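Listing S7. Sequence submitted for prediction.
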Amino acid sequence: MAIALAYDYIKRMDIERGEYYVILLFSISGMLLMSQANDLIVVFLALELLSIPLYVLAGFARPQVESEEAALKYFLMVRLQVRLWSLGWHWFLVPPVQPTWARLSQPSIRRLPIFPC
């Protein structure tokens, strides 16, 4: 559906390049991988596979300054978000445990001394 909707827009904006469709398919494959993930590591890799092509798509209209600015801002914000996400999982998971969804549903996740409950 995204390809059908973007077809006229790409022609109208004069940014018609063949890489657009390949980059969009890489991003879609990241979405599909994330929906089938059982481990948190696979979720992290799927998030990367989803977001890296979106940086490129944000800056796809390269001669325009707005496009370059959007790609840079998106890159910096998502990189910070991914780093904080991975740091959060590091704090909440016991190090020798396999990080799976089944493991997270069990109440044996350690509590941090920073947040006493």
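Caption to Listing S7: primary sequence and predicted structure tokens for the chain studied. The radius of gyration is 19 Å. The chain has a mean pLDDT of 79.
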